[in-house]
Structure formats: C-alpha cells, structure tokens
# Entry
Amino acid sequence: MDAQNQTQGTEFILLGFSSLLSHQVHLFLLFLAAYLATLTGNFMIITLVLLDSSLHTPMYFFLSQLSCLDICLSSVVVPKILVNFLCQRHTISYNQCLAQAFFLIGFAGCEPALLAVMAYDRYAAICQPLHYAHLMGSKVCIQLSVAIWLWGFLDSAIYTALASRLEFCGNHQIPHIFCDVPPLLKIACSDTSVNELATHITGTFVGLVPLLFIILSYFYILASILRIRSKIGRRKAFSTCASHIAVVTLFVGNAFVNYNQPSAGYSLEMDALISTMFCIVTPTLNPLIYSLRNKEVKGALRKVLGGIA
# Structure
C-alpha cells in the first residue's frame, strides 16, 4: 500500500528532447506551427462536411470522424510538449501520465478501426453499388461510429488499468516525449509480464485485425475495378480509393515503426522523431491528402469561401 501511494505521488521526467535544450525555442515554434496546422486542416474538413450538403454521405461522415480523431490525438500530446518547452524541467505527474496514456492509446486505437470502416464503405460503393444505400444507411453509420470508439477505448482501458498497477522505485525518467505504456514498462520496478502479454494480444486485435480487413476489402475492390471495361470508369473508381490508401499507408507505416522499434541501437533522438511523425505530422498531413486529391472537398471549400466573400 505504501509503495502504491509512493508511486501515485511520483513525478516523471520526459527525456525525449533532453539533448536539444539549446533549441527549445525553435522546437516550441515548430511544434506550435504543426499543431495549428493540424487544428486548421482538420477543423476545415469537419466544417465543410457539416456545411455542404453534397458531402452528407457515409464516406465524408467517416472522414470527419477521422479529422476529429486527428485533432484529439494531437491535443493529447502537443499542448503538454509545448508547456515543457517553456520550462526548465520536462516533467509530468503520475496521474497526468496515466491520463495521457489512456487517451493517447484510445484515440490511436480508434483510428485503425475507422480506417477499416472507411475501406468497407469503399467496398460497398464499388463492389455492391445496388445495395450501397442499405449497407451504409445512416443507422448503420452511427452504429459503426459507436463501435469504433468502443473498440479503441476498451483497448485503452485494459492498457491503462494494468499500467496503474505498476510500481516505480528509483528511476522516474521516461525515455520518450510523452507518456505511453511501452516506455513506462521500461522503467517499472514491478513485474511487467502481464502488461507485455496484454500488449501483444490487444495489439493484434486492435492493429492487425483492422489491417487484414482493409487488405481483404481492397482485394475485392481491385478485382471489381479490373472488371470495369472503360478506362475512365476504372480511373474514376480507383480515384475514390486513392486518398484512403495513402492515409492507411501513412498511419500503418508510422504506427508500426513507432511501436516496433528494435531494442538495440536505441536512440532518444530517433524515438522522438518517430513519435513526432506518428502523433503530430500524420494528423497534419491527413486533411491535406484528402483535400488535395479530392475534387468534391475542393469544390465544397470554394463554395464556402465564395459564400464568405
């Protein structure tokens, strides 16, 4: 009991940028600019989907969900990083650390499920066009949306509940730029075998299952596209999937590297760079990918800006 009380009073030190103390102001400005770009781009997508009736379709409903997740994912991490840049010691309390890990894992866990649902939407539109209205009706979309959030935060609750049982003795330095469960396991002085087992099991369900579903969906989508005789028809069908494929590739690539770093040759600087890509750069790029490659989004933006002017 005393050890648990001592752990709850712990203050952790985040070491992610400890070797770049002379560049704190530059890093602060860089992260602030990236965060503002994330907020601006993703709020733009959400606003366009709300205001333009032509975007009131399942595809854009889930795209606005993706933008919401990106805003939440960045907001869990970046504000604390910005505050620490302005302080001499990069610290975070035990309770703040667990809260940050809970929401970070929750939002990150929702995203693979959401990308899988978006792949299913494209499958229904291309492979089952006559049944699309039934397969992706408004009631179905709401049910899928609720399932996505439950999927991510059930995983997060398991992770965080197990992490809350860990004890931290002398080493309170987290080799990371924010609180996440894997870095906490490295510095815990209690047994972490159950945590590591849960990490592998839940990681398989939350990450691998949606990825396999996305791959299977695109197998059927590709087969359907190849059966289209018209080159224009094939190009149009594929163009509706191109942005989603780019976002999936970006997210899966960054998530895989972020959570599968080799123990040998470990570098704080490299870890900070990879984590920055996963939690800051990817949410910034997602709205750009969809807006730059999507005629409907660009058309909606022109209408909204024209209405303001």
